[in-house]
Amino acid sequence: MLNYGEAVVCRGVVVGSGWISSAGRVLGLIAACLSSLAGCTIESVDQPVAGASEASGGSTSGDAAASGRVSETPRRIQVNGSSTVYRVAIPMNEEFEDKFRDVKVQVTSTGTGTGFKEMIAGRIDIANASRPIKASELEECKKNGIELVELRICLDGLTVCVNKENTWADSMTVAQLNSVWKPGSQVETWKDVDPSWPAEPMKLFGPGDESGTFDYFTEVINGKEDAIREGYGASSDDNVTVTGIAGEKGGMGFFGCAYYFSNQDKVRALKISATDNPADGVGPTVESVRSGNYTPLARPLFIYVRKSALARQEVQEYARYILGDGQAQVSKVGYVPLDEAQLKASQETLEKAISELSVSK
Question: How many Cβ atoms are within 10 Å of 22's Cβ, its own excluded?
Fold first, then answer.
């Protein structure tokens, strides 16, 4: 007979626990284990399985941290916003949750604009953003009593990519990009941009209008935010944009540099020239983005933390982690780390906000 507080486990899954008085039931459990070709063990549990928590780790405080027990009610942090920031948020979150095992970070990628809408509605703790918040969005937050802490977390070189079979275009000027992407553009083939290029039909891909990348690109290339031609393949998923470019010989599109660095076997990056001479083009690299030479497509990436959420210890831990140990993930995914002064400025902004909350208590 199993005593209360013991469980039969197969392949890491609890298949029975509590009082088991029937010998037939025990034999049935053992048979189930054998049929799955896995050994069964009896492990101690603190409570019946039906009451088990969704969390996958122990508490980070007191005896719970020492024992490694699972927290019944994991602390949760709600995050939404930029698909560009999402690329680095995922490995950061995984590492953070390994360290703080009683915290669950629920992050969604719907675009910077949607992330700010969720923040305005008070439904999230943090908005990931690939552009600064607009004055209109900030005003809506204030109307709802929401105060934000802006933290720059890394740098990005927004990258314009073409199909690997495109052997003719190596560099484009801002003016040429504008001729392709501006509202009312009549460009249909690559030859329409440069007479020396082939009459290959141009297929365009990029993010939709809820994306901060969309906002940034349209402003610096077309001179006005949200101003863009009709008829391109828009998606909130940058991986869809990569697939679109890779599938069309005349394909071209844009996204954050991390998506390019991880897909160099599928697409090729164009050099970008801020002058009228394509030969002056500069490619997206760590050096060119950090130095500012990759102009005008180098930009900072942000998180916006709801200040009232910082009153919670888990949100403080998460924000400090992003600006601390989490910075190791920035280079790994292909973004550009902040320099020492920029990182220190973000850290000081965070600590000031936390200290102001402590004083106000």
Answer: 10
CA distance 268 to 191: 19
Structure pTM?
0.75
Eight-class DSSP state of 106? E
- Per-residue pLDDT of 227-264, as tens digits, reads 999 999 999 899 999 999 999 999 999 999 999 999 99
Place of tokens 């599938």: 247
Tell me the HSE value of 178 on the side-chain side, using a 13 A CA sphere: 15
What gap in Å lies between CA 79 and CA 87, rounded to an integer?
Answer: 13
* Domain range 75-155+301-360, its CATH number among 3.30.559.10, 3.40.190.10, 1.20.1250.20, 3.20.20.80: 3.40.190.10
Backbone angles phi, psi at 213, to 5 degrees: -65, -40
Half-sphere exposure of 47 (CA within 13 A, CB side): 8
Report pLDDT digits (tens) over 272-312.
999 999 999 999 999 999 998 999 999 999 999 999 999 99
Asked whether residue 118 carries a pLDDT value surpassing 70, the answer given is: yes
CA-based R_g, the chain, Å: 26
Residue 341, token pair as written in the block: 């002064």
- Phi first, then psi, for residue 346 (nearest 5°) are -65, -45
Q: Taking a C-beta distance cutoff of 8 angstroms, is the pair 280, 170 a contact? A: no
Instruction: Provide the pLDDT confidence category of residue 361 given band limits of 50, 70 and 90.
Output: low
Q: Where in the sequence of the chain do the CATH 3.40.190.10 domains occur?
A: 75-155+301-360, 159-296
Could you please state the CATH topology (level 3) that the domain comprising 159-296 is classified under. D-Maltodextrin-Binding Protein; domain 2 (3.40.190)
Helix or strand run (H / E) with residue 180: helix 174-181
Q: List, in order, residues 6 or more apart from 34 with CB less than 8 Å away.
A: none
| Backbone φ and ψ of 166, nearest 5° | -75, 105
Nearest to 314 by CA among 103, 138, 135, 30: 103
Share of the chain above pLDDT 90, in %: 76
N-terminal to C-terminal alpha carbon distance within the chain:
54
